[in-house]
Design a protein that fits this description.
The complex is a heterotrimer of chains A (300), B (331) and C (563). With 300 residues, chain A is mostly helical. Chain A is 71% helix and 0% strand. Classes of the chains: A mainly alpha (300), B mainly alpha (331), C alpha+beta (563).
Chain lengths: 300, 331, 563
């Protein structure tokens, strides 16, 4: 994550204001050439679609249990990926679990980035004491043994979807806030913000019309990579039993549950982990491609 | 430099205090004290028993009093007594740190040993097959869920291991978890036994750092070989090997020092999952067990230990960077 | 680009291939002992806390303690009581148990034996231990029996073996123990007790092998914290003779999967009852193939669902009965537990001495009967398929249990599906154990149904469990365990009488009545009785899977041997 800050630092200082469409068009053209990123994007779109359309795609109901048909092996007996300890169809569960895991991923990443951006903008724009306090706060959060604190919070407030999203979001904002603060510090002394100020533009207007749009590229990249991170975090929390609680399926709790049956039904542990891996991998591919595409230093 | 270090050390105090207050509050304000739970687990426990035990343990006092007492005792090196492990936390922590070091140090060197040569090679031969393989590997390494990777490794090497049918490969049936076989005599047999237990968890723990280190080495090397002085050295007619060894490598490794120092604390912090999957009795597992098991005393100590570790290694990273890079000056 | 894809796809194909190929683990392992014919290696998922019987909270500790110390009275594999450390159990017949109005006196004589450092076990050891347990400063947890005792007398002097125990009140189970914590070696412990009673649990006695002196068939020789514990046989013990197994080592493997793997690899001779989950035992059984035996023993842990009787819908007994009829407990037990954890029909488990099958109201799976009962109670199907009454109240309930308990989560989902079929909607909301037991159940905050287990013992009765004075509320400081809020004057009378009845036959009659009343009113839905599980290599003789409060598989450890 720290690397983002380094490679993106000298971003678009000379870009005309407001950001012209040209910049995004160029970025898109570059992105399209990035095969891994496009592959990642394609898989992500497919995953999202299968999660959204799960009720239509899934071969069974996700709460449908079949006690007479537990632990069915994959590729047999009408269950493509087999059945679990209650006779749930694993494919169906994976699709529905994808809804939860992706939702947590997007929502937590979004809240983390939104919070980080807010802190970064306020700290960078106002500077002085405000900046100092906010940055010390960031330091403290960065020093926290985050995993332990997440477990702790998960233990007391966890279980629910919203709670998990808030808990993950609450500790993921620090990197973004430093990044955004750096951008804002750089941008606020550039000619166009001075010009805007001279023309009597309000603070809010300067922030939202001039500063934020120019700091958008690193924020977008951070958000993309954060989605993968949040999915991993949720899975880890669920693995320890403090994430999303059954009967709501998530990839993490499916994996945790499957571990007890590893000796006799190892495929139960394989599928959900593979889904997490695939999803996170694709977000990383896409985020990486996006970073290259949005980095104006790279000429094609 | 000494003044800088001193000032940084001073700055750590308020941060550490802030964290300790936060942790203490989170741990103590949560519902369901272990003593309260006794009532639910044993019908012979009466409310007056709970009240008596709370008085003995000092749990009947207001939170700020308990915090000040905790702080006072901690300052004197007494981290309290874990009611789950029935051991003074200092002993517990000492044993656990020892166990964790086995893993952490091995994983750390394993990661460096792979990452630096691979990173350098892929920078020097950019776009070669190995570079692609290394890049893909770094993506895999940062994307794979550690617990799943661990479980799959256990399945392959400890449950399934079809290759053990070949007698020469029989030793590749590795233990699925734990730290040593009891009854193994001290000395060489003990270390050989320990080695077998360490293979899987250290590989799993190393993977993430391996991927990050490779990535950093590669990009740092790429940046350096584009620099003027490397070009100059080359144009002076120095051999490629000399250029790389004398000029590029040294400079490329400077930023790596920061990353490495920062990641030592990260390795500790990243170990909870690995240690839990492989039932390795280290600090990470203690963190998980004490937080989930509601052992405040142990949890508070581990959380503080990890926080202080991060603070210290942040400082080490900065100091190391300054020592290696003459362009940076602190005062 | 191409190289990259080849590489990753090759890896994925490899991984897939490895996973999907059906597994073949059948490696024949020798079934012989792991460490020699005079040794046993047992795997446990817990590590003992203290080996001082006063502070041993964990089952693992109790299981080890019974090899190091002698119990006054012990239970055998069929749960029958026998005198171990005492000459005989006091009884009303021979006058060693005397009733005196509300008070009573028991006369004991202990079997002569020595502590492992050579000093004799005496009456003064009992007196010392009892006084320590009474001390407000000592962090002993349970003082249930201690508080009922008024004093202990050494009738033949402090160094004698005759003990008279005077009780302030009638207590039905006073013949099961001399005092709550029996005898501890005064000469080894008193020093620490005088120094700091509030840290008696942290003293070397019970923590340091050299200073932990017992009077049992084995003595502690090594304790590697976090790894293992070893005891060695005492030779020619006056009570136990010379055990054939010279060394027992417990390995602590907190990860139950690793425990299973170690059993499979032959590194363990046995897994104790504090080891693997029921589910894992069933799986292990499938893989055993004669290499080891898996034991299932029906115990006294009762899984059930409390109905909150303050919920107006559940206050109607017809609704409670309908819900119970609607759940196919028999199929659940057969499919999930391979029939080894039987359906329960009342609050006492089948093997409890107070249980009876006579005149018991049983609720067989019968969805039609369930629907009829609901109709009788005024419920008809609503437009959403959920039953509702004339006031429009829907039969929609929240079901709570502890988060992270896989078996309970499975049972919840089965109940949810079963009840949906009779038009009852269930939402599942689980809490971490400490919140659940620390806030929800004990303060009766569950809105409708709460699933959990009571760990019973052969001496459990319904006093404090279903008597109306034991409904937790603000004014009694949330004391009592009648979480459903059940009130029945007849049951109150029976339960109180049973808890004070010293005659076992009469007591069991009273308990029989309580079981019948309970099954009629069902303030809580009985689900099933848990089984304890253990595993051992077939050559290990006399090993059992007994798990009762205070009695574990180690109860007869001195009689184990390899064949």
């Amino acid at each position: 994550m720290a690397r983002n800050a380094v490679s993106l630092a000298p971003l678009a200082p000379a870009a005309p204001m407001p950001v012209g469409e040209g910049y995004w068009q160029i970025a898109w053209r570059r992105l399209r050439k990035h095969h891994l990123a496009m592959g990642g994007l394609l898989v992500i779109v497919l995953l999202i679609a299968s999660a959204v359309f799960a009720p239509w795609v899934a071969p069974y109901g996700f709460e449908q249990i079949d006690l007479m048909n537990r632990f069915a092996s994959p590729f047999r007996a009408g269950h493509l990926l087999g059945t679990d300890d209650l006779g749930h169809d694993v494919l169906t569960r994976l699709l529905y679990a994808g809804r939860v895991s992706l939702l947590v991923g997007f929502a937590a990443a979004f809240s983390a980035v939104a919070l980080g951006t807010m802190v970064g903008v306020v700290a960078g724009f106002y500077g002085g004491v405000v900046d100092n306090i906010l940055m010390r706060l960031t330091d403290i959060v960065l020093t926290l043994p985050v995993f332990g604190v997440l477990l702790l919070l998960g233990r007391y407030f966890g279980g629910g979807l919203i709670a998990i999203i808030i808990i993950i979001g609450l500790f993921g904002w620090t990197v973004t806030s430093r990044l955004v603060r750096g951008e804002i510090l750089k941008l606020k002394h550039l000619d166009y913000s001075d010009a805007a100020r001279a023309l009597g533009a309000s603070e809010t207007r300067i922030i939202f019309r001039h500063l934020l749009p120019n700091a958008m590229a690193p924020i977008i990249v951070a958000a993309t990579l954060d989605v993968g991170g949040a999915i991993l975090t949720e899975a880890a929390l669920s693995y320890f039993g403090v994430g999303i609680q059954p009967p709501t399926p998530s990839w993490g709790n499916m994996l945790q549950n499957a571990q007890s049956y590893m000796w006799t039904s190892p495929w139960l542990a394989f599928w959900p982990g593979a889904m997490i891996f695939l999803t996170v991998l694709c977000f990383n591919f896409f985020g990486d491609g996006l970073r290259d595409a949005l980095d104006p230093r790279l000429k094609q | 430099m000494q003044r800088y270090i001193f000032r940084r050390l001073l700055q750590m105090i308020p941060i550490a205090l802030g964290i300790s207050v936060l942790m203490f509050a989170l741990l103590t304000l949560a519902p369901g004290d272990p003593v309260d739970l006794l009532i639910a687990s044993d019908p012979r426990v009466r409310p007056q028993d709970v009240a008596r035990l709370k008085r003995i343990y000092g749990l009947d006092q207001p939170i700020h009093v308990r915090y000040v007492k905790w702080l006072g005792r901690t300052m004197q090196g007494d981290l309290g007594f874990s009611r789950t492990y029935k051991e003074p936390v200092t002993h517990l922590l000492r044993d656990r740190i020892g166990n964790s070091l086995w893993l952490t140090v091995t994983a750390f060197f394993l990661a460096l040993l792979v990452a630096i040569p691979v990173g350098i090679y892929s920078a020097l031969r950019q776009y070669s097959a190995l570079d692609y393989a290394a890049t893909t590997f770094t993506f895999f390494g940062v994307s794979i869920p550690v617990f799943w990777f661990g479980i799959m490794m256990i399945y392959l090497f400890a449950v399934w291991h079809p290759w053990t049918a070949v007698p020469a490969l029989a030793w590749l049936a590795l233990p699925p978890g734990g730290i040593s076989t009891p009854g193994v005599p001290d000395g060489l047999p003990f270390y050989l036994d320990r080695l077998r237990y360490m293979v899987l968890p250290s590989v799993v723990l190393a993977l993430l750092s391996m991927a990050t280190f490779t990535r950093y080495t590669r990009s740092s090397m790429l940046e350096v070989i584009r620099q003027d002085y490397v070009r100059t050295a080359r144009s002076k007619g120095l051999g490629e090997r000399a250029v790389i060894n004398k000029h590029a490598l040294r400079n490329a490794l400077i930023p790596l020092v920061t990353i490495i120092a920062l990641s030592i604390s990260g390795l500790f912090a990243g170990a909870p999952i690995t240690e839990t999957v492989f039932a390795w009795p280290g600090v990470g597992r203690l963190l998980v067990d004490s937080v989930i098991g509601g052992d405040y005393v142990a949890a508070q100590a581990v959380l503080m230990f990890l926080a202080v570790l991060v603070l210290v290694f942040n400082l080490v990273a900065d100091v190391g960077y300054a020592l290696l890079d003459p362009r940076i000056r602190y005062d | 680009m191409r190289a990259r894809w080849q590489w990753s796809s090759a890896l994925s194909v490899l991984l897939l291939a490895l996973m999907v190929v059906p597994l073949q683990t059948a490696q024949a392992q020798p079934a012989g002992p792991a460490a020699g014919r005079d040794q046993v290696v047992i795997g446990m998922s817990q590590e003992p806390d203290f080996l001082n019987p006063m502070f041993a909270e964990m089952a693992a500790s109790v299981s080890v303690i019974s090899t190091i110390f002698t119990s006054d009275v012990q239970r055998d594999a069929s749960w029958k009581l026998f005198a171990q450390g005492v000459q005989s159990l006091p009884s009303l017949k021979d006058g060693t148990w005397k009733l005196n109005g509300d008070k009573m006196t028991l006369v004991w004589k202990i079997k002569p034996r020595n502590w492992q450092d050579g000093k004799p076990v005496t009456c003064s050891d009992f007196v010392f231990t009892h006084n320590a347990a009474r001390n407000e400063q000592v962090p002993v947890i349970v003082r249930d029996v201690t508080n009922r005792i008024s004093n202990i007398l050494c009738t033949k002097g402090a160094s004698g073996t005759d003990i008279t125990v005077n009780y302030k009140e009638r207590y039905a189970y006073a013949n099961l123990l001399v005092t709550e914590y029996g005898a501890l070696p005064r000469h080894a412990l008193e020093r620490f007790y005088r120094q700091n009673p509030s840290k008696l649990n942290e003293s070397p006695f019970g923590n340091d092998p050299r200073q932990t002196i017992g009077d049992g068939p084995y003595k502690l020789v090594e304790w590697r914290k976090g790894a293992s514990m070893t005891v060695e046989a005492v030779s020619s013990h006056p009570l136990f003779g010379t055990p054939r197994i010279k060394r027992i080592t417990w390995r602590f493997i907190p990860d139950t999967n690793a425990l299973v793997a170690n059993m499979l690899s032959g590194a363990l001779d046995a897994i104790g009852t504090i080891g693997i989950s029921f589910d894992q035992a069933v799986q292990l059984d499938m893989q055993a193939r004669g290499r080891f035996k898996v034991f299932f023993e029906e115990g006294l842990i009762w899984e059930h669902i409390d109905f909150n009787l303050d919920n107006p819908l559940l206050a109607d007994v017809r609704v409670r009965r309908a819900l119970t009829h609607a759940i196919n407990r028999e199929q659940m037990v057969q499919q999930l537990f391979a029939g080894k954890q039987p359906v329960s029909h009342s609050y006492l488990p089948t093997r409890h001495p107070g249980y009876t099958d006579r005149n018991l109201t049983k609720y067989a799976y019968d969805p039609n009967r369930a629907k009829a009962l609901l109709q009788e109670a005024g419920f008809t199907p609503g437009p959403d398929g959920v039953m509702r009454n004339a006031q429009g109240q829907r039969l929609a309930f929240e079901l709570n249990t502890t988060a992270g308990n896989r078996v309970r989560e499975q049972v919840e989902q089965i109940i949810q599906q079963n009840l949906r079929e009779i038009g009852v909607a269930i939402t599942i909301q689980n809490y971490p154990a400490r919140v659940y037991f620390g806030e929800i159940t004990n303060r009766r905050k569950f809105p409708a149904m709460a699933m959990y287990a009571w760990v019973m013992s052969p001496t459990s009765d319904c006093d404090q469990l279903y008597t109306s004075d034991a409904i937790p509320n603000e004014s009694n400081g949330w004391a009592g365990q009648n979480y459903p809020g059940y009130k029945n004057a007849e049951l109150d009378r029976i339960c109180k009488a049973a808890s004070q009845e010293v005659d076992e036959a009469k007591r069991n009659q009273l308990l029989n009545q309580s079981v019948q009343i309970f099954s009629r009113d069902i303030p809580a839905m009985p689900l099933y009785v848990r089984a304890s599980v253990a595993a051992a290599k077939p050559g290990l003789q006399n090993f059992t899977a007994i798990q009762l409060s205070g009695t574990y598989e180690t109860w007869n450890v001195h009689r184990w041997f390899w064949q």
